[in-house]
Every structure is written in structure tokens, then in C-alpha cells.
Fold this sequence. Notes:
The protein is mainly alpha-helical. It is about 70% helix and about 0% strand. It has one domain (about 50-270): MetI-like (MetI-like fold). Residues about 260-270 have low confidence and may be disordered.
Amino acid sequence: MKxxxxxxxxxxxxxxxxxxxxxxxxxxxxxxxxxxxxxxALPHALQWGNYKAAYTSGNYMQYLFxxxxxxxxxxxxxxxxxxxxxxxxxRFKWKYGPVVLLLFLIGLMIPMQATLLPLMxxxxxxxxxNTRWAMILPYIxxxxxIAVFILSGFMRTLPTELEESAVIDGAGTYRTFTSIIxxxxxxxxxxxxxxxxxxxxxxxxxxxxxxxxxKLKTLPFGVYTFVSQYNVNYGNIGAFLVLGALPVIxxxxxxxxxxxxxxxxxxxKG
Length: 270
């Protein structure tokens, strides 16, 4: 049984790792090598110039700053709003709690494409079209429902003794929330951070619809720098994709470590 399990995990590891290895090899090839159709062949000479072109000609730092600014702003706002809503839904005894949760769950079923035209009209009227807010506000709206669902489910499992002891010590609602509930809820909060970061980092449709200024475009737009009417530099595109994936990989590993620490802290405090 154990060899079968190891075989399964080996196949899974190879299938997950191969696309990343293939992309790195792709980014180190010339156009001729890529168009030759030899997908499994190693590059004859490592084309490090592709990375230099991706960094300079692709305006990597500008697009990286825009992506980081938008993504981190959305993450902070989603955590703040969803944690407060989840706390109110799961820990307060009020008859409208299930109704509010249902409204957020309905938000999960609304496709992003169905909101493009109404949002375009609203943003044009409010004069925030072609600004960072035109990306930040919809991103918060689309990421909050799943965050509320995850956090409220976790907070329901917390023992009431945590809040009772805080009330005995004289803590109010906000003090209990910030000093007791949030520290214990670190594991699901980190999960929400990872999901939000990945979803926003790779998002293209909303950004392409509401942003036209090159100064505000995010990383997914950098690929088009190397696409012209008569020529496509595939090696530079591959290098740009590798550079764009590096922050995601780094953030994932950093947050994964914090998830483990958060689980231990939550278990001790719980």
C-alpha cells in the first residue's frame, strides 16, 4: 500500500513541478528554439538577456509596484471587514445573523463578468474610472464573501469561555474582538490572505476593463509589451512570467510558515 501512495505523490509532484520547470526553460530559449516545437529540449545557450529585457523593456518594477499596492490594500481591507462581519454573525445572538450570512453567500454566486457594465457606469458617474479605486473596490467586494464564509465557520467553533473570561476581566466587545478572537483566528486569516493574494495577483478582466492608463496597469499587462503586430518575443514573455510568479511563490511560503505558527498559537490559546 505504501509504494502505491508514494507513487501517487510522486506523480502529483511531477505534474505540479513540471509546468514551472518548463516555464523556466522556456524563458531561457531563443524564439527559434521555442518555435521549433522541441518542448522538452534544453536551450543550446542560456538566454539571460530575456530577463534583462523583461525587467527593463517590460517596465517590471512599475507593474510590480502597482500589483503590490492594489493587492496588499485589498488584503488588508478584506481581512478587516470580513473578520468583523464574521465575528458579528458567528458570536452575536441576533435573528438577522443567518440572513446576513446568506447575503454574503449569494455574493459567491455572482459572476464577475455580469458586473462589468454596471460597475463601468457607476465608476464613470463617480469619476473613479481609470484609477486604482476602480480595481480595489470590486476586488474587495468579490473577495469578502469567501473570507466571511471561512472566518465565520472557524469562529463558530471557538468556545464561549474565551469571551466570558474577557467580560469578567472588564473587556468590551471591541477589546474582546481584537485581543482574544483575532489572535486565535490567525490560521483562517492566513488562508484568506493566500486566497486573496493569488486571486487578485492574477486578475486581468476587471483591470483591463477599468484601467487604461499605462502607469496604473498591473503585472498581467506586462506580457503585451513583447507582442507587436508582426512579431512576438516568446523568450521575453517567458522571462516576464517567471518574474511575475516569483512574488506569489515567495508570499506563499512566507504565509505557509505563519499558518503553522498560527495553528500552534490558536491551539494553545483555545
